[in-house]
Design brief:
One of its GO terms (biological process) is glycerophospholipid biosynthetic process. One of its GO terms (molecular function) is CDP-diacylglycerol-glycerol-3-phosphate 3-phosphatidyltransferase activity. It is a multi-pass membrane protein. This protein catalyzes the committed step to the synthesis of the acidic phospholipids. It comes from Fredinandcohnia quinoae. By secondary structure, the chain is mainly alpha-helical. The protein has one domain: CDP-alcohol phosphotransferase transmembrane (TM) domain (Four Helix Bundle (Hemerythrin (Met), subunit A), Up-down Bundle), CATH 1.20.120.1760. It contains seven helices and two strands. Strands 1-2 form a two-stranded antiparallel ribbon. A hairpin with a 2-residue loop joins β1 and β2. The protein is globular and about 60 Å long.
Length: 192
């Protein structure tokens, strides 16, 4: 297993740490900045999530720069992204910070695309993430981060950046999913 794939696996291993921080009642209290109060667990969870998400760029950069792109990496990298974002989104629903219906749309798309990837792999095709998928991923990361940070610092100006970011993430999630299926519809024609 090469370095980029090890970084991808590390991203997956950060998910349980994120969940422990978010759900084990450590009693850390809150941080108050002016009129905004943010639970410390949410700040720590946001840091872990942002750090884990940043490894997506790092592993991809190393893989491309040193010609270490592998089929395993093409499969593991988007899987790690989906697991990380799904865990964070379900956490946000549990904490009452994100609407369940939006999270269901995002996670449903991720399951559908993963299923399509498995069909493609069965036919000998391994599809790496495309630009729309990368934009979708970063839109989701921005939305989750803003929600975990309780809309800080935008809360000072009463601008709902966190919800705007979540709407943008949902839109890119649907559009990129549609695009992925449209570009790979041949797999369904071949399976008749």
């Amino acid at each position: 297993m090469n370095l980029p794939n090890k970084i991808t696996v590390a991203r997956i291993l950060l998910i349980p740490l994120f969940l422990i921080v978010m759900f084990v009642p450590f009693g850390w209290g809150n941080v108050t900045i002016s009129t905004i109060s943010i639970p410390i667990k949410d700040l720590v969870g946001a840091f872990i999530f942002i750090f884990a998400s940043s490894t997506d760029w790092i592993d991809g950069h190393i893989a491309r720069k040193y010609n270490l792109v592998t089929n395993l990496g093409k499969f593991l990298d988007p899987l790690a992204d989906k697991l990380l974002v799904s865990a964070a989104l379900v956490t946000l629903v549990e904490l009452g910070l994100a609407p369940a219906w939006m999270v269901i749309i995002i996670i449903s798309r991720e399951f559908a695309v993963t299923g399509l990837r498995l069909l493609l792999a069965e036919g000998g095709e391994v599809s790496a993430a495309k630009m729309l998928g990368k934009i979708k991923m970063w839109a989701q990361v921005v939305a989750v981060s803003a929600l975990l940070l309780h809309n800080f610092p935008f809360e000072f100006i009463s601008f709902p950046f966190d919800m705007v970011a979540l709407w943008i993430a949902v839109i890119f999630t649907v559009v990129s999913g549609w695009d992925y299926f449209a570009k790979n519809k041949h797999i369904f024609a071949n399976s008749k």
